[in-house]
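Hi F.,

I've been meaning to write this up properly since the lab meeting, where we talked about keeping a consistent format for the predictions we share between groups. The idea is simple: the sequence comes first, exactly as it goes in, then the structure tokens exactly as they come out, then a line or two of notes. No screenshots and no reformatting. I'm using this chain as the first example so we have something concrete to point to.
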Amino acid sequence: MANAAISPPAASKRRILFASLIGTTIEFFDFYIYATAAVLVFPTLFFPGEDATTAMLASFATFSIAFFARPVGAVVFGHFGDKVGRKATLVAALMTMGLSTVAIGLLPTYQSVGVIAPLLLALCRFGQGLGLGGEWGGAVLLATENAPPGKKAWYGMFPQLGAPIGFILSTLSFIILTATLPNEQFLAWGWRIPFIASSLLVIVGLWVRLRITETPEFKKTIDKAERVETPILTLLAQHKFALLTGTLAGMATFVLFYLMTVFALGWGTTAMGYTREQFLPIQLLGVCFFGLFIPLSALAADRWGQGRTLLVTSIAIALFGLVLAPLFGGGGLVGVVAFFIIGFSLMGCTYGPLGAALARPFPTAVRYTGASMTFNLAGILGASLAPFAATWLAGHYGLQAVGAYLAVAAVLTILALLGMNRIKTDGEV
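Output, unedited:
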């Protein structure tokens, strides 16, 4: 009877799952259009120079800023998410991300204002990271804290689906723009369209999120007066092991994804000689497999366990690292297609259960902060420097060094997942 009293009706649950999905879709769309522009546009317009590789590395450096901003967003938004509530905090996070993205679409270039242009770009990128740092954890909790028993991973995969959907929308945007506009017009103004158009998606996301209710588990925390004064201090004092293992448990996921996206796009359209019109559709095909395997892996996680599913997938990622070079660099078009299909399928397998798995070790009173911090610290370790490091490794030691980089990250994740199995919590996730 108690569970029935706090469980939202079916229509409300559908609205909640849609709110968690559309929010992360918008956030990741905004995040990925920057990632694509960091390869195709920003080196030319914001970091002009004679050396194309140096300009690309400078662009990747601004790309990494968001990952260092994300833990800041996790602390700020996590504090209010654990103190005030999931709903209001998610609205604020979406606004922060949306305004930063639209601002990028309105920035002057280096040719217009000189060095001020890359500085403004870096500031807006920081704002993107700040918003996403608060978005992911809240969206996962919105889903998992409304989930019935035995379906935590299934509910938790809905915000995870926002990643492939956002990526597909962002990639399609650039495919359409590059196919319909001459290169001069694309560089002059066409690249701005996805950034400015994201404002329409933000309006839809805000409308949906303002209509949802607070999660039952957070309501119980209020009723029992279990909220803590400063969630981040409680997290660091009482949950250090969960924070450490959770961070490393997400590391391979981030390394894999940003090797498959930003690094692969940059390397494929420079060193391998593909045009962006040739390469983006191949990458898009792989992302479809990413989206397909997210729900499949969530079903597996609810049946066989989140930790076990992630452990098996991480072993497979390590093995994939060993064949990365011959597939991507030596197999021609067939090898490149196989590289994307296998890599993105593994990405879906690790990403589907990850949200529920990272939230599980933390009690409700610090869960928003804890889940957000582990996810975003994993982003710093696994993603912030991945395109830069992989480009440097490939340039100096070949693609086999990039594969070794991925395999080492997967081994660290395997060790962390084994450590997470020791954690017990009084939380319900």
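Notes:
The mean pLDDT is 86.
The chain has one domain: 7-211+221-420.

If this format works for you, I'll send the rest the same way.

G.
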